[in-house]
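hey
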């Protein structure tokens, strides 16, 4: 059976799958990234994991995978196939595509940025399906974005497109590790809300999920922390929609798990801020933590489709329910 390898490399763990031509998941696996052993060990772990997936495909389906797609964090040169830099993994300038191609017997390999790859999946088979223009924004430890245009995700001239977390929403505000002050992710990421709520409630172990629960319980301090985050996020999103004019804003990541505790005030905050702009739909992501892996599979199938100049590159399932587990 024709299939591809899909691999999503995170800061602490890796998710992988063998994906059939119809988008079905033929095999799934997870393992730790092993970053505590250093960047060289992480690269070795990725190569070993990919090789195991290839062997499984041969054993179970009688054929080697046709291609592989790999999503990694940090700065990624997708054209050159180089993992340029990832703070949480410690690597620099890793020729990951070439290493994987060699380890996997010469099959084509696509290397992608984790958020853009997740956005690709959300756009094609998730919450953005049917939208010709969308912006996918996961709210996690930081905030990034994926700009979707007609089934593809825009990387930009230098691979930095979509870095909405570094839009300055509070000039002169909290310093950001990027070197600016007042960046969106310093106010509206899950990490920022956790920090603000821990300070407000006096519990150093409190996090964003605890803040959301306190909001639902009517805690005044929690509501203030939450509203400040929502207002900052709305400012950033309106800047983005003014520039990009998306048909859909897709919000994912840990903070989105609060559901309508987040989405109800956020929709209202965005609505209040728009003037001449066309208000897009604002919806939760549909694929959860499988988005990166599913997107990696789409990257791999795109390689095959592009190489054969097939009339359609979307070898993907007809609905998100076919790919969730």
């Amino acid at each position: 059976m024709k299939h591809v390898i899909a691999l999503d490399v995170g800061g602490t763990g890796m998710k992988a799958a063998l994906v059939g031509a119809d988008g079905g998941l033929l095999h799934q696996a997870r393992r730790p990234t092993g970053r505590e052993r250093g960047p060289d060990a992480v690269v070795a772990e990725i190569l070993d994991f990919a090789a195991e997936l290839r062997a499984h495909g041969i054993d179970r389906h009688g054929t080697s995978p046709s291609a592989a797609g790999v999503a990694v964090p940090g700065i990624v040169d997708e054209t050159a196939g180089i993992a340029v830099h990832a703070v949480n993994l410690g690597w620099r300038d890793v020729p990951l595509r070439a290493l994987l191609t060699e380890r996997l017997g010469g099959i084509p390999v696509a290397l992608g940025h984790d958020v853009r790859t997740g956005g690709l999946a959300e756009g094609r088979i998730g919450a953005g399906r049917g939208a010709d223009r969308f912006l996918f924004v996961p709210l996690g430890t930081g905030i990034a974005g994926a700009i979707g245009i007609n089934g593809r995700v825009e990387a930009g001239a230098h691979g930095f497109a979509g870095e909405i977390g570094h839009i300055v929403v509070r000039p002169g505000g909290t310093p950001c590790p990027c070197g600016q002050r007042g960046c969106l992710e310093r106010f509206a990421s899950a990490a920022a809300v956790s920090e603000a709520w821990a300070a407000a409630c006096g519990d150093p172990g409190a996090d964003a999920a605890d803040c959301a629960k306190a909001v639902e319980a009517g805690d005044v301090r929690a509501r203030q922390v939450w509203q400040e985050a929502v207002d900052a996020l709305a400012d950033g999103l309106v800047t983005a929609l003014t520039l990009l004019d998306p048909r859909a804003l897709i919000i994912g990541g840990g903070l989105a798990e609060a559901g309508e505790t987040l989405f109800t005030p956020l929709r209202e905050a965005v609505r209040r801020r728009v003037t001449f702009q066309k208000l897009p739909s604002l919806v939760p992501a549909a694929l959860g933590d499988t988005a990166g892996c599913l997107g990696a599979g789409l990257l791999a199938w795109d390689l095959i489709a592009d190489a054969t100049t097939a009339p359609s590159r979307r070898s993907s399932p007809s609905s998100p329910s076919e790919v969730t587990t």
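Residues 310-325 have pLDDT under 50 and may be disordered. The chain is about 40% helix and 20% strand.
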